[in-house]
Amino acid sequence: MTRHPLKVTSLARTLTKTHVNKQRMDKLTPQQRHKTMASIRSKDTKPEMVVRRWLWGHGYRYRLNHPRLPGHPDLVLRKYRTCIFVNGCFWHGHEGCQSYTIPKTNTDFWVNKITRNRERDARVQRELAAMGWHSITVWECELKPKNREKTMESLAFTLNKIFLQDHNAKRYIIPEQQPMMAAEPNPRNEVKNNPQAHLTKEEEV
User: Fold this and answer.
1) Element housing 135 (H / E)
2) Which domain holds residue 156?
3) What's the total number of domains in the chain?
4) Is beta strand 82-87 parallel, antiparallel or unpaired with respect to 134-139?
5) Sequential DSSP letters for 67-103
6) The pLDDT of residue 5 is above 50
7) Domain of residue 135, CATH code
8) Residue 82 vs residues 49, 78, 132, 203: alpha-carbon distances, Å
9) Helices and strands, counts by H and E, the chain
10) How many degrees, rounded to 5, is the angle at CA 143 between CA 141 and CA 149?
11) pLDDT class for 203, splitting at 50, 70, 90?
C-alpha cells in the first residue's frame, strides 16, 4: 500500500510545543554536539544494514540509492514497485519516539532542520506516488532487537501484499468436470452399434 504523505502544516510550531518543553538536559558543549552530529553517516547505517541483510537472506533483491528516483531511496525493489526508507528517529522527527528529543542547545536550528527534513520526506513520497511507486518507512526504533523480527515480518507481508495487488492476482476456480465429447463421431462405432447405418437409401428401401 502507498503511505500517505505526512501533514506538514504548522510543523515548526508543533515541534516547538511538543518537544522543546519535554527535552532532556543537553550535557554536551556546542563543539561536542557538532562533532557528534557530523560523525553520523547517511548511508550504510546500522539500521539500514539490518534491513538489507534480512531482506537479502529471505530472497528479496533490491538496488541501493537509485539515482533516478526522487530522494534516492535507501532500497528499491523493482519487482514490488516499492521504495524503502530506513529513517533515523531523530533526523526525521519520529513522533512519539523516545529517541526524538530536541537538543537543549541551538534549539531553533534543530527545530528548523528537522522540519525541513520532514517536509522533504513528504514531498519525495508524493513524487514517488505520482510515478507509480509505493513508499515504506522503517524507523530506527522499530529495528531494535526486541522489535526487529516483528518489524521485518510485517515488512515482508506488506511487500507480498503489494505484489499481489499490483499484479491483479485472481483466485482460479477449477470448473466442474464434464464428459469428454469427440469432435466427430467414429463411423465404425456407428456401424457396430447400428448395423443398418452403413446401408444407403436405396438398400434401405
Assistant:
1) strand 134-139
2) 11-166
3) 1
4) parallel
5) TTSTT--SEEEGGGTEEEEEE-TTTTT-TT-TT----
6) no
7) 3.40.960.10
8) 18, 7, 9, 79
9) 7, 4
10) 140
11) very low
* 150 within some domain: yes
**71 within some domain:** yes
Q: How remote is the C-alpha of 26 from its chain's centroid?
A: 36
Angle between helices 145-166 and 46-57 (to 10 degrees): 50
Kind plus residue range of the DSSP H or E element containing 164: helix 145-166
Phi, psi of 64 (to 5 degrees): -100, 135
Mean of all residue pLDDT scores within the chain: 77
Averaged pLDDT, 120-133: 97
CB 48 within 8 A of CB 142: no
pLDDT tens digits, 141-162:
999 999 999 999 999 999 999 9
Provide the pLDDT for residue 188. 61
- Indicate whether 6 belongs to any domain: no
pLDDT at position 181, please? 53
Q: Kind and range of the H or E element at 63? A: strand 63-64
Q: From CA 9, how far away is CA 18, in angstroms rounded? A: 15
